[in-house]
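Internal ticket - ligand job 347, 2-acetamido-2-deoxy-beta-D-glucopyranose:
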Amino acid sequence: MMMKVAFLWILIIAASLALEANGDATKYTAMYVFGDSLTDAGNNKYFIDSIAKADHLPYGIDFSGGPTGRFSNGKILVDFIAEMVGLPLLPSYADVVAKGDSILFGVNYASAAAGILRDTGYQFGRVIPFEEQINNLRKTLGQLRGQLHENEVSKYLANALVFVDIGANDYFNNYLQAEYYPSSHIYNLEQFADLLMTLYRKHILEIQGLGLRKFLILEASPIGCAPITIHNMKCNATLNHIVAMFNTRLKSVVHDLKSNHPGSTFSYAPSFQIFTSLFDNAEAYGFKVKDSACCGGRDGSNGTKPRCSKDTVICPNRNEYLFWDAAHATEAGNRILAALLRNTTSF
Ligand SMILES: *[C@@H]1O[C@H](CO)[C@@H](O)[C@H](O)[C@H]1NC(C)=O
Ligand SMILES: *[C@@H]1O[C@H](CO)[C@@H](O)[C@H](O)[C@H]1NC(C)=O
Ligand SMILES: *[C@@H]1O[C@H](CO)[C@@H](O)[C@H](O)[C@H]1NC(C)=O
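stdout (structure tokens):
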């Protein structure tokens, strides 16, 4: 315990010195991450009643140490973002609880299949909705307070980055699945987007209420541009339009948060456009295949089963594929996405 306190102190001092020295290399003390399968680093893997898990090969085939629960062959977007801001790879909250992984640099709470609404993704079994991800953050902060003085915690949290990428599943694993979920019978698309925004804003303010001050908020991803939805090399415009309705509102929510909370910073990442432009120009970025997954090809969407399974034969050159499975990018794709994000967003 004492060792940990001393260690954390050294980190905080080192981080603030680095910040003063060049203002860039070590920008943040820690990072706290919320999201879905694009961001999950293993939170669903201990749930025996979940099928939204990527805890087996060939997932993680290019990740040091093998499968972790990340939905890719290697690193995911948030791993590259952590690297860019001078932080190590973050542990999943589940591994903090199960294995005592260190919380010093932050924690990843994202859960595959989850969304903003509590019932989103339930057809895959147990998932962790946004609200519950925030409850898990509360537990981490309780743990931090056991190790540090309250003043130190405030400073530490004020200099931590919050990464949020959530919302696409509220369409893909909720609104658009009328046989499982009532939402499309209750709300039209405008009302549904408004409902999601009310909750989104509330949750961001809850996180802020816990002492976090720096936010990086990503647009919901273009669900029409994935091997399961691509048709004749083209993204499904209907699906993308639906998500764009969410993003338009998200942009104005972030704008509002900026004007009403001057003590905090809110960066809006146009990740929807970034991804569609990467998709449109995939060849220029070195991808030979963009409409089919390295693992599972084009029709990996077999009912509600995992899309890339233990015995799926994978493509020989993973760097030539934009998609690893029918819904998630390869490490090569994620690396370019992160670079494009850095070039368009200040965080
Ligand atoms: C796009 O997705 C919608 C909703 O799932 C579907 O009804 C439509 O047929 C798709 N369009 C194409 C061109 O695949
Ligand atoms: C989809 O599932 C059916 C029934 O379980 C199976 O026969 C078929 O081979 C599967 N297709 C793919 C592409 O995995
Ligand atoms: C990001 O910007 C840098 C500097 O302008 C450029 O060298 C790099 O190619 C850009 N990255 C991408 C992926 O466009």
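Auto-summary: Residues 1-7, 13-25, 300-305 have pLDDT under 50 and may be disordered. The pocket of 2-acetamido-2-deoxy-beta-D-glucopyranose (ligand 2) is lined by residues 299, 302 (CB under 6 Å).
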